[in-house]
Amino acid sequence: MNLIRIILKITLLCLLAVQTYAVDPTFNSKIDYQVGTDPQSLFAADLDGDGDQDLAVANLNTAFVSVLKNNGDGTFGVSVNYPATGSPASIFAEDFDGDGKQDIVTANWSGNSVTVRINNGDGTFPFLGITHIIAPTSDNGPFSVYAADLDGDGKPDLATANYNTQTISILTKHRRWQFHSNGTVWSRQYPCICFCH
Do residues 67 and 56 lie in contact, with contact meaning Cβ atoms separated by under 8 Å? Predict the structure, then answer.
């Protein structure tokens, strides 16, 4: 009899624990933040090194990148805008120069290029970035960019999905923030998202 009571108490405690710690799938009311026209892509990363996730936004039709720093409570400050080279459609954060800080890269759709901006160390970036043309002889239209070590050398490389030519392009890391075009692979239809794992 005592064993049954103990089992019932344990079962009840387990049910209460599950009910208490169940994840609530609802969200608080939305907060809107002003960025550019047609924000196409955003990426969360600790850009200023304070341990919380900031936001970087690619604004397709205003040709600039917006950076919003986290206030530490999940709210964000006013966006700081940096000019981009030709319709940034996608943005990604990665440490490209090996200093432990998250830099940003954009895929510039109408610019047929990617632009790398090296972090100043505090979540601010140079006014102009380092732009790499993907294919000088064709209008690839890179619409998505992703950084990952694709060739196994310990350095982040770049992959772009090119909307206009239905291809993907690989740019391998060469020096501190320079990349070499490593070829283009044909794809079907219109690739819009690039992801490496």
Answer: yes
Task: Extract the tokens encoding 24.
Answer: 């609530």
Residue 95, classed as helix, strand or coil, is coil
> What does pTM read for this prediction?
0.77
DSSP 56-94: EEEETTTTEEEEE-B-SSS-B---EEEE-SS-EEEEEEE
The number of residues making up the chain comes to: 197
Give tens-digit pLDDT for 60-88.
Answer: 998 889 999 999 999 999 999 998 878 99
Adjacent-strand bridge partners of 158? 147, 171
pLDDT tens readout for residues 157-178: 999 999 888 888 898 876 544 4
Take residue 55 and report the two structure tokens written for it.
């936001």
Q: Is the separation of the CB atoms in 168 and 159 below 8 Å?
A: yes
Nearest to 170 by CA among 139, 137, 196: 196
